[in-house]
Amino acid sequence: MLEKKEQLYEGKAKKVFATNDPDLVIVSYKDDATAFNGAKKGTIAGKGVVNNRMSNFLMEKLEKEGIPTHYVKELSERETAVKKVSIVPLEVIVRNIAAGSLSKRLGIPEGTPMKRTVIEYCYKCDALDDPMVNEYHILAMEYCTEEELKTIAYLALKINAFLVKYFASINVELVDFKLEFGKTRDGKIVLADEISPDTCRFWDATTHEKLDKDRFRRDMGGVEDAYREMMKRVLG
Ligand code: UDP
């Protein structure tokens, strides 16, 4: 029986607890929402439940596709047992359609399809505002090894190929998303963190209506409804 022990960490959207198994931790999803590196704060009622259940559902599917993840077992609406990993300090961003910071940086309208999938890396550091880095920075700063970076890029593209197809089947365009990877005690790279409307841009494929955290970031209203709609489409 897995026992929940002391809190190890509290992040912006999740808490992490130790357990009686040294290789497992329990993540607990909160309704707290932040944007722009914590400058904007709020709550999205029910978000923790949506993100926990959706992320677990997708990680189970990815595991079946041969992608290693941290997912172990859903314990309740908001809590999940996951493998304890050390997080590679990178946000791995995958883009299929221009939006957000890429549209701004390169001056291309949101909604422009990318001719090839784009991967970007940001160094996870709140104090520096998660600066974008390239492969050279990552290796020079030793955020991970060259082999780990190859694995991360390979897995990110494989995850994207699967998710694009999956979301298309529920009439959702997967515009872009952020992944985080972790290293298990035995050195294996696995997908960690979450896949949810907090970390992905989802557009309805017919109306192009936004069904993700951009509704919160941009004060568009209908935030809870968008999360609920995504949960309905994914989990039925
Ligand atoms: N993203 C995220 N956490 C971050 C930054 C980005 O989950 O700290 C996700 C975001 O939801 C989007 C994708 O990564 O799906 C690309 O985000 P972008 O670089 O355009 O940044 P934003 O416009 O969200 O600031």
Essential attributes:
binds uridine-5'-diphosphate, D-amino Acid Aminotransferase, Chain A, domain 1, 31% helix, 5-stranded antiparallel sheet, 6 helices, 2 domains
Question: In terms of topology, how is this protein built?
Answer:
Blueprint lengths: L3 E7 L3 E6 L4 E6 L2 E4 L4 E4 L3 H18 L6 E4 L4 E5 L2 E2 L2 E8 L2 H7 L6 E11 L8 E2 L1 H6 L5 H24 L2 E12 L5 E4 L7 E5 L9 H4 L5 H13 L1
Antiparallel strand pairs: 1-2, 2-3, 3-7, 4-5, 6-7, 8-12, 9-10, 9-12, 10-11, 12-13, 12-14
Helix pairs in contact: 1-6
The chain binds uridine-5'-diphosphate.
Describe the structure.
Helix 1 (47-64) runs parallel beside helix 6 (223-235). The chain starts with a strand and ends with a helix. With 236 residues, the chain is an alpha+beta fold. It is globular, with a radius of gyration of 17 Å. It has helices at 47-64, 100-106, 135-140, 146-169, 214-217, 223-235, and strands at 4-10, 14-19, 24-29, 32-35, 40-43, 71-74, 79-83, 86-87, 90-97, 113-123, 132-133, 172-183, 189-192, 200-204. It has two domains: 4-83, Phosphorylase Kinase, domain 1 (2-Layer Sandwich); 86-223, ATP-grasp fold, B domain (D-amino Acid Aminotransferase, Chain A, domain 1), CATH 3.30.470.
Q: Gap between N and C termini, in Å?
A: 30 Å
**What is the strand content?**
25-35%
Low-confidence stretches: none
Bound molecules: uridine-5'-diphosphate
Q: Number of domains in the coordinates?
A: 2
Shape: globular
CATH superfamily of the largest domain: ATP-grasp fold, B domain
CATH topology of the largest domain: D-amino Acid Aminotransferase, Chain A, domain 1
Gross CATH architecture of the largest domain: 2-Layer Sandwich
Q: Mean pLDDT score, rounded?
A: 98
Got a strand count? 14
Label the structural class: alpha+beta
Just give the CATH class of the largest domain: Alpha Beta
Order of helices and strands: EEEEEHEEEEHEEHHEEEHH
Largest β-sheet summary? 7 strands, antiparallel
Radius of gyration: 17 Å
| Distinct helical segment count | 6
The amount of helix comes to 25-40%
